[in-house]
TrEMBL record:
Pfam families: Rrf2. This is Transcriptional regulator. GO terms for cellular component: cytosol. Signal peptide: none annotated. It comes from Aurantimonas aggregata. InterPro entries: Tscrpt_reg_Rrf2, WH-like_DNA-bd_sf, WH_DNA-bd_sf. GO terms for molecular function: DNA-binding transcription factor activity.
Length: 155
Protein backbone atom coordinates (compact mmCIF):
# COMPACT_ATOMS: atom_id res chain seq x y z
CA UNK A 1 0.00 0.00 0.00
CA UNK A 2 1.45 3.36 -1.04
CA UNK A 3 1.66 6.06 1.59
CA UNK A 4 1.08 9.74 0.88
CA UNK A 5 4.31 11.39 2.04
CA UNK A 6 3.61 14.89 0.72
CA UNK A 7 3.13 16.42 4.17
CA UNK A 8 6.41 15.02 5.40
CA UNK A 9 8.16 16.14 2.21
CA UNK A 10 6.76 19.66 2.35
CA UNK A 11 7.74 20.01 6.00
CA UNK A 12 11.26 18.91 5.05
CA UNK A 13 11.39 21.51 2.25
CA UNK A 14 9.99 24.31 4.41
CA UNK A 15 12.50 23.69 7.19
CA UNK A 16 15.36 23.78 4.70
CA UNK A 17 13.96 27.02 3.32
CA UNK A 18 13.81 28.44 6.85
CA UNK A 19 17.54 27.76 7.19
CA UNK A 20 18.38 29.58 3.95
CA UNK A 21 18.85 33.30 3.46
CA UNK A 22 16.97 34.36 0.37
CA UNK A 23 14.87 32.53 -2.19
CA UNK A 24 15.39 28.85 -3.03
CA UNK A 25 14.72 27.63 -6.57
CA UNK A 26 12.54 24.68 -7.48
CA UNK A 27 15.65 23.06 -8.94
CA UNK A 28 17.52 23.32 -5.63
CA UNK A 29 14.55 21.95 -3.70
CA UNK A 30 14.06 19.13 -6.20
CA UNK A 31 17.66 18.00 -5.69
CA UNK A 32 17.18 17.92 -1.93
CA UNK A 33 13.94 15.97 -2.31
CA UNK A 34 15.18 13.78 -5.18
CA UNK A 35 12.22 14.63 -7.36
CA UNK A 36 11.41 16.64 -10.46
CA UNK A 37 11.28 20.47 -10.19
CA UNK A 38 7.77 20.31 -11.70
CA UNK A 39 6.61 18.29 -8.68
CA UNK A 40 8.07 20.93 -6.38
CA UNK A 41 6.41 23.78 -8.29
CA UNK A 42 3.04 22.01 -8.29
CA UNK A 43 3.23 21.32 -4.56
CA UNK A 44 4.50 24.78 -3.67
CA UNK A 45 1.74 26.39 -5.76
CA UNK A 46 -0.84 25.01 -3.31
CA UNK A 47 1.13 26.49 -0.42
CA UNK A 48 1.37 29.82 -2.26
CA UNK A 49 -2.42 29.89 -2.77
CA UNK A 50 -2.80 29.59 1.01
CA UNK A 51 -0.29 32.40 1.61
CA UNK A 52 2.32 30.13 3.21
CA UNK A 53 5.06 30.74 0.62
CA UNK A 54 5.91 33.35 -2.01
CA UNK A 55 7.60 32.95 -5.36
CA UNK A 56 9.65 35.38 -7.40
CA UNK A 57 10.50 34.78 -11.05
CA UNK A 58 13.71 35.63 -12.82
CA UNK A 59 17.33 35.93 -11.78
CA UNK A 60 17.63 35.73 -8.00
CA UNK A 61 14.07 34.43 -7.74
CA UNK A 62 12.69 31.35 -6.10
CA UNK A 63 10.54 30.32 -3.15
CA UNK A 64 10.48 31.96 0.28
CA UNK A 65 8.38 31.35 3.37
CA UNK A 66 5.68 34.04 3.59
CA UNK A 67 4.72 33.72 7.26
CA UNK A 68 6.44 33.59 10.61
CA UNK A 69 7.17 29.96 11.51
CA UNK A 70 5.39 30.45 14.85
CA UNK A 71 2.10 31.06 13.05
CA UNK A 72 2.21 28.10 10.64
CA UNK A 73 0.91 24.76 11.90
CA UNK A 74 1.10 21.29 10.45
CA UNK A 75 -2.67 21.55 9.95
CA UNK A 76 -2.24 24.70 7.81
CA UNK A 77 0.15 22.81 5.57
CA UNK A 78 -2.00 19.67 5.56
CA UNK A 79 -4.98 21.72 4.43
CA UNK A 80 -2.89 23.54 1.80
CA UNK A 81 -2.05 20.12 0.37
CA UNK A 82 -5.76 19.46 -0.08
CA UNK A 83 -6.32 17.51 3.16
CA UNK A 84 -5.11 14.15 1.85
CA UNK A 85 -6.65 11.02 3.37
CA UNK A 86 -5.10 10.27 6.72
CA UNK A 87 -5.92 6.58 6.91
CA UNK A 88 -5.34 3.98 4.23
CA UNK A 89 -7.82 1.61 5.88
CA UNK A 90 -11.52 1.73 5.14
CA UNK A 91 -14.74 -0.22 5.03
CA UNK A 92 -15.01 -3.22 2.75
CA UNK A 93 -18.08 -1.69 1.15
CA UNK A 94 -19.87 1.59 1.79
CA UNK A 95 -23.33 0.15 1.06
CA UNK A 96 -23.48 -3.21 2.82
CA UNK A 97 -26.43 -5.53 2.41
CA UNK A 98 -25.60 -7.31 5.65
CA UNK A 99 -26.52 -6.08 9.14
CA UNK A 100 -23.26 -7.47 10.53
CA UNK A 101 -21.30 -5.39 8.04
CA UNK A 102 -23.43 -2.33 8.86
CA UNK A 103 -22.44 -2.76 12.53
CA UNK A 104 -18.76 -3.15 11.55
CA UNK A 105 -18.92 -0.05 9.32
CA UNK A 106 -20.56 2.02 12.05
CA UNK A 107 -17.86 1.08 14.56
CA UNK A 108 -15.07 1.67 12.04
CA UNK A 109 -16.50 5.02 10.86
CA UNK A 110 -16.85 6.32 14.42
CA UNK A 111 -13.35 5.15 15.37
CA UNK A 112 -11.74 6.67 12.27
CA UNK A 113 -13.59 9.95 12.79
CA UNK A 114 -12.40 10.18 16.41
CA UNK A 115 -8.81 9.30 15.48
CA UNK A 116 -8.78 11.80 12.61
CA UNK A 117 -10.16 14.56 14.84
CA UNK A 118 -7.45 13.86 17.43
CA UNK A 119 -4.71 13.87 14.80
CA UNK A 120 -5.95 17.10 13.19
CA UNK A 121 -6.14 18.72 16.63
CA UNK A 122 -2.51 17.78 17.22
CA UNK A 123 -1.54 19.03 13.73
CA UNK A 124 -3.02 22.38 14.78
CA UNK A 125 -0.79 22.48 17.86
CA UNK A 126 2.55 21.79 16.17
CA UNK A 127 4.17 24.77 14.44
CA UNK A 128 7.02 25.04 11.98
CA UNK A 129 8.84 26.94 14.72
CA UNK A 130 8.60 23.88 16.99
CA UNK A 131 10.00 21.65 14.23
CA UNK A 132 12.78 24.16 13.58
CA UNK A 133 13.64 24.24 17.29
CA UNK A 134 13.78 20.44 17.34
CA UNK A 135 16.07 20.50 14.29
CA UNK A 136 18.40 23.01 15.98
CA UNK A 137 18.50 20.91 19.14
CA UNK A 138 19.50 17.90 17.04
CA UNK A 139 22.22 19.92 15.28
CA UNK A 140 23.58 20.93 18.66
CA UNK A 141 23.76 17.27 19.70
CA UNK A 142 25.45 16.22 16.49
CA UNK A 143 28.77 17.43 15.14
CA UNK A 144 27.77 17.52 11.46
CA UNK A 145 25.08 19.74 9.99
CA UNK A 146 23.14 18.74 6.86
CA UNK A 147 23.03 21.13 3.93
CA UNK A 148 20.03 20.72 1.65
CA UNK A 149 22.12 21.45 -1.46
CA UNK A 150 23.92 18.14 -1.20
CA UNK A 151 21.96 16.33 1.47
CA UNK A 152 22.40 12.58 0.93
CA UNK A 153 19.47 11.48 3.08
CA UNK A 154 16.71 13.59 1.55
CA UNK A 155 13.66 11.57 0.65
Amino acid sequence: MKRDSRLSGVLHVLLHMAETDGPVTSEQLSKAMRTNPVVIRRTMAGLREQGLVRSEKGHGGGWTIAKDLVTVTLRDIYEALGSPGIFAMGNRTEAPGCLVEEAVNAAMDETFAQAEALLLKRFGEVTLAALSADFHARVTRRTSHCDFKDEPHAA
